[in-house]
Here is the input.
Amino acid sequence: MKIYDTLSAQLVDLIPVKEGEIKIYLCGPTVYNLLHIGNARPIIIFDAFRRFLEYIGYKVTLVQNFTDIDDKIIDQAKKEDLPFEEVGKRYIIEYWRDMTALKARAFNFHPKTTTYVDEIISYIKELEEKGYAYKAENGDVYFEVGKFSRYGELSHRKIEDLKVGIRVDVSEYKKNPLDFALWKSSKEGEPFWESPWGKGRPGWHIECSVMSSEILGDTFDIHAGGNDLIFPHHENERAQALAKSGKDFAKYWMHNGMIRMAQDKMSKSLGNVWYLRDLLKKFDSDVLKIFILSKHYRIPIDISEELLHTQEVSVNRVKESLNEAEEFFNGKVPYPQEMNYFKEQEEYLISGLSNDFDTPSVVARIFELSRDLNKALNSRDEETIKNNYYIIRNIYGSVLGVFETNEQVKKNNLELNQLMEIILNVRSVLREEKLYNLSDYIRDNLSKIGIEIKDTAEGTKWS
Here is the structure.
């Protein structure tokens, strides 16, 4: 399998750090607002990428973080007159609502910055002891870029060029304009943690180096994110990680292209952001996923309602074909007996996705198979109907995370209902025993993850 590695700037063989396993860290959202379609692109891509790696036999660990302390979160908390923690909690809940509507699988770990502050402080202390970090007069602690000779390797720029050509956060307290904050001293009224350098909070870049190494180890397989993060975020992450451990950090770097509105980069400052949930009110999740996956992950995408409506037509044709196949067999399509055709189509899938995750070729083949399925329905060719139905549903669709069967949806809903029934029965017993503190604990903690419990005259209900 080959992937494009940003660090080496070429297609490379994907050779795992540990045979049979792939560990991936994907930069996640800063939780001060709802997910927009730009946030959704890497989620859709790497959900499918993980599914494919699992399909071909790898054990995959995929981590995506929540940045829940940041200037934007603090500003939002001030606007709403709320503790900063409440802003983060709210938008993490909204993240999960959007992920559910998108029908994306949760990743293996979703760490929050605020739960790793002790580890971040220890990490910075080690960088300081090794001579890579210094405390400035304003109380901030900076990484000294001049001490790290490999700075610029990921973004393929020289330090001298970066000083001149890249806009960075300039401070009179830095030794070098490229030095970046590891620890930021707290201003009056801002949240803080106690540290050897005084009251403050983590800088942005340090959190990902710490959480990735704590969960995946000092060296893991793939670091991923949007290509707008290559500099300075990922460059800084890599610098501090290599300086601290002396090990490779991420072996490979994968970056997806941006989403553009009328060929302009999507940006909150430009006021041209499309929130994911607004799009999901207008379009099925499969439409958004197929739209994203029908373009190669590394190229920028132009998006418009007109383009999405065009995609919707083709996606609906596939769904209609699948539904007609189910009706043809009175609800359940029998499993096909012809395995050679299966093997041929599976080889096409593996070949395409092993070539730098070429999802457009696989999406195109889904539409071809759907057209063949329609022809088979018209001619009542039962074996071809069964073959193409199962290839679309159980191979191509399963790997890309699209065209989920009604049975799968029902199964997921059934499992949730069964789980909630157990929880509510436990809570009822606690209330009968007058253990109200424990009963309220269950109710309050379910509320934190977006599940509301109401005690009514007809019994306890949840939503």
